[in-house]
Design a protein that fits this description.
Blueprint (H helix, E strand, L loop, with lengths): L3 E3 L2 E5 L5 E5 L2 E3 L13 E4 L8 E4 L3 H5 L12 H6 L13 H13 L4 H14 L1 H10 L1 H8 L3 H7 L1 H4 L6 E4 L6 H7 L7 E5 L15 H14 L7 E7 L5 H5 L13 H18 L4 E4 L4 H11 L5 E3 H21 L8 E4 L3 H16 L4 H6 L1 E4 L23 H5 L9 H9 L3 E4 L9 H10 L4 E4 L11 H7 L5 E4 L16 E2 L6 H10 L7 H13 L3 H5 L10 H18 L8 H11 L7 E4 L3
Parallel strand pairs: 6-18, 7-9, 8-9, 8-10, 10-11, 12-13, 12-14, 14-15, 15-16, 16-17
Antiparallel strand pairs: 1-4, 2-3, 5-6
Length: 609
């Protein structure tokens, strides 16, 4: 394999906060071919006319039974047992997937803690992918908090102690010049989606290093469950660049690189080499950047979104689901979008992404950029976000308040700032993404209820223990008038007249459909406008009668319908903006329906027959 050197530019952040442009040296090569010895021992054919998918297999007997994608357990039919060398090595009674689901449910119910339930489901997935996804899909609202937030956060923390078998791809700085080889080792000849993290900002748990692979695995499970993307077309990735977590570094069982995090040009060089290798191997694959620290999240998104179809879910996915929820909330509150004022508490990826989405919507409705930004105010841990602040992070400047406006803001203590800002700004909606439990205090919420008839409160932080406020308090403090959305699931809250539904602003309502839509049309880029139409499609999935009753977002139980609707809207937007080949709506729907995988056992045929 021959290499050539290229020197893209990078920004290195110095200790004093200044920026310095530096050069990176990256190795690139022609796209290689996966050696036959490293390919999966099967080839899967997509379904046609509603039939199950078919797999040509080279493995037989014990090797076949141990492959989680091909294994059917006791549900192998008699003819496959005979043809594939399975007779006698599994119990003789032929069961159905329905009876297997009963056994899974029985064993799942015996687990006493969430982490035990998580481990049981991981073990199930490791031996039978189809049964795992079928069980999860049929019990999604119960299973989702186990396979993803909040339990997956604990699983990432305990990763090195509960490790069972490898899943996904681990890329380190030592692999800088051999990432093509690592992609070979994955065995994937075709990839639709890669979820990539560096493990630095895992949910509310912070830097988990190599344990962040659990996030990538969890997200891809949601792609399979939500949009029906076949598990064999996905690859979870962790860029293990070390960790600054003292507990991980001191843990004798820690499985990641035991060194401080890579920073600056060396970090950028590794990311660049990884992107270049993915682009060579799978030029149409979608890359989702997940749980990066703020500075890297914005930098990586901006640097690579035009080079390969990619997006950051913490920024764009959150922005779209919040936009969908706010769109319906403002309609329910009878507040025109061009007049809606929003106060954001927290100025990280989630709220910046939400503000960007809302800005585009307001401008599309006729406001100028200046007018739209004047209707949005940010508070962070330092205080009011405005241009006159020293050392204001670059990604916050786009929504920073003009200095002259900030001078007119009432002076108060930091503890009083939220309440005083509400009384001064009179927002219609309060959106929190702080990771701080109780950040919305009673005085502030009661102040919000005084300045608007239907206070809208989005407490987005995950897990539930970090929510800015609990819905029961929000409803009580507003005398039942609040329209509430949370990041974690909460049951309806008793209100003065009827139970008040609590919407879950779950990114799962957005990103599986975006990924599927971009994949089926082979989009060259994933644009902000695609997320805008995704938000609109998601909002429109709530019928008028349910919106009138207070429901502002679909439930995760409706995820297959929502994801298909979002995927079609995204693909049509890609066609409209010429980000893919010209395709009709009928062609897009046909592609979608052929790609959507239902978790049912594949027909297995011998490759040599």
């Amino acid at each position: 394999m021959s290499f050539r050197r290229v020197e893209p530019r990078s920004i290195e952040f110095l200790s004093n906060g200044e920026e310095k442009e530096v050069a990176m040296t990256v190795l690139t090569a022609a796209r290689p071919t996966i050696p036959p010895s490293k390919r999966h021992p099967y080839h899967i054919h997509r379904r046609t006319s509603g039939k199950p998918w078919i797999a040509e297999v080279s493995a037989i007997g014990h090797a076949l039974r141990k492959d989680p994608m091909l294994n059917k357990g006791t549900a192998f039919p008699s003819d496959e047992r005979q043809r594939l060398g399975l007779r006698g090595i599994i119990p003789p009674h032929e069961t159905t997937i329905e009876s297997q689901l009963g056994r899974v449910a029985e064993n799942y119910a015996r687990r006493e803690s969430d982490i035990d339930r998580y481990l049981y489901l991981v073990a199930l997935q490791d031996r039978n992918e189809t049964l795992f996804h079928r069980f999860a899909l049929e019990n999604l609202e119960q299973i989702l908090p186990i396979i993803y937030t909040p339990t997956v956060g604990q699983a990432c923390q305990e990763y090195s102690h509960i490790y069972r078998r490898p899943r996904g791809l681990y890329v380190t700085a030592d692999d800088l010049h051999r990432i093509d080889e690592l992609l070979d080792n994955s065995g994937l000849e075709e990839a639709a989606l890669l979820v990539v993290t560096d493990g630095e900002r895992i949910l509310g748990t912070g830097d988990q290093g190599a344990g962040g692979i659990g996030i990538s695995i969890g997200k891809l499970n949601l792609y399979a469950l939500g949009a029906g993307i076949h598990p064999t077309l996905t690859l979870p990735v962790v860029l293990d660049v070390g960790t600054d977590n003292e507990q991980r570094l001191a843990d004798p069982l820690y499985l990641g690189r035991r060194e401080r995090r890579l920073r600056g040009a060396a970090y950028d060089e590794l990311v660049e080499a990884f992107v270049a290798a993915v682009k060579r191997r799978w030029p149409q694959a979608i890359v989702q950047w997940e749980d990066f620290a703020k500075r890297n999240a914005f930098t990586i998104l901006d640097r690579y979104r035009d080079r390969l179809p990619s997006f950051n879910d913490d920024i764009l996915g959150t922005g779209a689901v919040v936009l969908a929820g706010l769109t319906n909330a403002f309609e329910l509150a009878q507040v025109p979008i061009t007049e809606a004022r929003i106060l954001f508490l927290g100025a990280g990826e989630a709220n910046i992404g939400s503000a960007r989405a809302m800005l585009a919507t307001k401008m599309a409705a006729g406001l100028t950029e200046e007018q739209a930004k004047a209707q949005m105010v940010f508070l962070d841990t330092t205080g009011l976000v405005h241009y006159a602040r020293t050392k204001l992070e670059a990604f916050k400047t786009e929504f920073a308040m003009p200095a002259e406006r900030a001078k007119a803001w009432p002076r108060c203590s930091h503890d009083e700032l939220l309440q005083v800002s509400i009384e001064h700004f009179c927002p219609h909606a309060l959106v929190g993404a702080t990771g701080v439990s109780g950040a919305f205090d009673e005085a502030s919420i009661r102040a919000l209820a005084k300045v608007t008839a239907r206070p809208i409160v989005f407490a987005l932080s995950n897990p539930a223990s970090l929510s800015e406020a609990v819905p029961t308090d929000l409803i009580r403090w507003t005398n039942g008038r609040a329209i509430v959305a949370t990041g974690s699931p909460f049951p309806p809250v008793p209100g003065p007249k009827h139970p008040v539904p609590i919407a879950q602003a779950n990114n799962m309502l957005i990103f599986p459909g975006v990924g599927m839509g971009a994949w089926v049309c082979h989009a060259k880029r994933i644009t902000d406008s695609m997320f805008a139409v995704a938000a609109r499609a998601c909002a429109e999935c709530v019928p008028p009668e349910r919106l009138a009753a207070g429901t502002i977002l679909p439930t995760v139980g409706e995820i297959r319908r929502v994801s298909r609707t979002v995927a079609l809207a995204v693909a049509e937007e890609a066609v409209r903006t010429k980000e893919c080949e010209p395709l009709t709506r009928e062609q897009l729907e046909e592609r979608l329906d052929l790609e959507i995988w239902e978790p049912q056992y594949m027909e297995l045929v011998r490759a040599d027959e």
